[in-house]
Amino acid sequence: LALEGALRGALRNDQFELYFQPQVDLGSGRVVGTEALIRWRHPHLGTVRPDRFIALAEETGLIVPIGAWVLRTACRQNQHWQRAGFGPLRVGVNLSARQFSEPDLVQTVQRVLDETGLGADSLEIELTESMMMADVESAIDTMRCLKAMGVTLSIDDFGTGYSSLAYLKRFPVDVLKIDQSFVRDIVGSPDGAAMVDAIISLAHGLRMHVIAEGVETLAQLDYLRGCGCDEVQGHIYGRPGRVEDVEPLLRMGW
Ligand code: G
Ligand code: G
Ligand code: G
Ligand code: MN
Ligand code: NA
């Protein structure tokens, strides 16, 4: 309850911050995008991790204004980077279930793109399987509207939710993000390695790109490269960090 009260004041008191984590294209070795990840710094509670407050924000509906703030701040930052000459960059924004089912989501996204001047093709919206499965037809409608605007859509934490392959091919999605639990299993388990290989083949068969998450070791990186994985994100290239800490990574080639 104390947390809920504090969360109510967090936006007004300017306690949120976005961290960004680089995403590296394995073909070119360049950073081609970042994922925006929210952080909450409370003067007494300290840093509260999103795992602790996103669910609460969902239950209370606070996720709607907080989510709009995340979207606007991420788009503004990405547009700033592009204007500053960091090159073409995408920014990935996590949506929560409640935001995804808001009737005015599509207008909100359009308004944020208009306000910030960011090209729609520089925005990637991350959805989860469970969000899509809650109401499949309505989810497909919303996804089509976002696609029509030119926004890129990805499935986050792929493989951990429940969705059937029959639906996967119906979702107008551009990118699969392989969950870090699969990446962790690559080394040391032949089955784990086979799973990752299969997910990448499946995605490519459906003309989707693949981003592997939670990549920490060279062995994982080598295996992913061998499977034709398109992009990776993880501690090996950089943890989620503040703008000033991420900027040097954006210039780098690996
Ligand atoms: O960075 P990391 O520990 O902190 O993120 C933890 C979880 O919080 C992840 O599942 C991530 O998707 C989620 N998350 C981070 N930022 C946001 C956000 O802006 N909106 C939503 N809905 N979830 C977020
Ligand atoms: O659920 P989602 O994929 O949106 O959130 C990504 C989560 O993964 C965040 O909590 C982020 O901090 C975390 N993360 C990013 N890179 C790594 C990594 O290399 N290893 C681990 N263990 N976690 C990571
Ligand atoms: O290898 P090169 O000279 O391009 O490396 C440039 C910088 O990038 C160096 O600081 C190097 O340590 C770092 N670097 C190279 N490869 C990796 C990698 O796979 N992960 C991380 N985190 N840093 C790397
Ligand atoms: Mn994500
Ligand atoms: Na994920």
From TrEMBL:
Residues 1-254 form the EAL domain. It is found in: Membrane. It comes from the Bacteria. This is EAL domain-containing protein. The lineage of its organism: Bacteria, Pseudomonadati, Pseudomonadota, Betaproteobacteria, Burkholderiales.
